[in-house]
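This is your field. Please look over both lines of this record.
***
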Amino acid sequence: MGVCVNGWSLVAALLGSQLLLLAHWKGNQLAEPPNLDIRSVLHKLSGSTYESLNDSGGVTDLQAALLDPDIPLNSFLFSIYDDINCTNLTQRTMASKVLYAFDAGRMHAGGAATSHEGQWEFMGADQYRFDVHASSGFRLSIDGHVLLDAWSSSPPSSPSRTSHRRLLTHLTTGTHLLKIDHRCPGTKACSLRVHWSVDRLGLRVFVYPLPSYFNTDILRQHPACRQTMFASEIIIHERFMASDVLTSDPSEADLFFVPVYSLCKPLPKPLFGPDTFFGRRLLLQAIDFIRTQYPFWSRRAGADHVFVTAHDYSSCFHYKSTGLVSVPKSFQSRYPEYPIPAQPLQPLQNSILLSPLGDLMTPCFQPWKDIVIPPFVSSAPFEQQTMNRDPDHIDSTGGRSRFAYFRGSVNWFDGDPGYSKGLRQLLHRTFLNDSEVQIFSNSSGSYAEELRESVFCLCPPGFALWSPRPFESLAAGCIPVLIGNHLVLPFDDLIDWSKLSIKIAEEEVGGLKTSLKQVSEWEIAAKQSEIRTSWSAFFWDVEGSSSRMDAFKMLLRSLSTKAKQSQYLEL
């Protein structure tokens, strides 16, 4: 059964055999189309396929044979009814798309309805996304099956707004019968827009076109930040802009990405690291900007918005997870709000945060909404050509001369007793003179080579629970030994970390050597094999040119899961 609409109130122009109804995205509203007499437009077009109307708005007997025409492939038979019960057909024509708007002032008092029906060819077996923007109730059917039923939906609260529904469905190669029915109450403007495309991930992301002072201007002033471990905020922005998930239509976005380079500006020397005081303010300014310039934040209080907060303690913008962090005297005039408690920025409490921080014991990470990502580490210095050796070769070291290894700071430069929760200090005291568990507190120009020579690489925390060491270890083919409690690892919903690493609880550090000695030769070989398969998934392909899995592709899969948790009924 079809759906209905007053043929005299249709706001449209017929060009050749294609129906082009004048509906345009303008902010969050449909631009008001001109009032056209659809009958006069039809009679001016020669050679078009249409059914003429008699004076009462019905179909003439002469054209009755056209009520069931042989519809050309990849076209719709567009039917208009003068009532919402689809009983009084007033118009039929061919259409190449589903796109129209009705003027509320010219609608029939009893309402109307429309129906688009036709055979469409799909060139490949794949997952397809159907986006429907409707001012009132509709049905979407494929091959006679109703897959999206919003026929009883109430119109949006504002006449200028539409409801957006999406359908993800797998279709086989070949032709499929599509049918879209739409009902239009007689008291409101009426519009419908439907289109579809391949969408393997079920994800569309709108990237806010923020003014350049939020991102690229900062990068231009501080180009070295592209090489720091916090550079994921830059890479993710650039990869989104070249990604298939990018949409320029915010009304169809599942998620909204806010590209703020909050960690690109460094602290002045002799201090080092990103200027988190500046970054905190910049991010808050960006939120104020999108709140005032766009309507999308307020729909779900920012819950469908994505930010990169790649600092030590993520959205807390602190170097510690608890207590107060003081500002250097030279900064106090610029940042009078400090010292402040280490707590997440309030506006981000609902948003999806992308951060290396996966610490369940800090309020700066909320696992039900945030996604743990790896920091930026260049894999080039660590990659081991011999990682591709014969996978059937099994021995206790895999051809590596070091059993267990760590090189890094044992104490922070200011003697902070909370640094590394005391775990690096404990490792240093316990294994200072051990020939198998080698602990070094000084730097070395041979660090990458030492990782490649090691079977197990120890990864204790620094100030935060995360560090680059697990990823440097993976690139070198060394099994990461993750030391820490309550740890959530990057993409652990997609990759089983137990197959490529060892976990040691904080209270078991003293017995670390005994635990590692109990790992069998077979298990060592299995983990090394898994590392050879999976390591690239934790590294950011800056150019996006590699065919292998990388951290951005993994991120898209995690974001797709987040997107599926949300439905946007009112746009």
Observations:
- The two ends are 28 Å apart (CA to CA).
- The first strand starts at residue 10 and ends at 11.
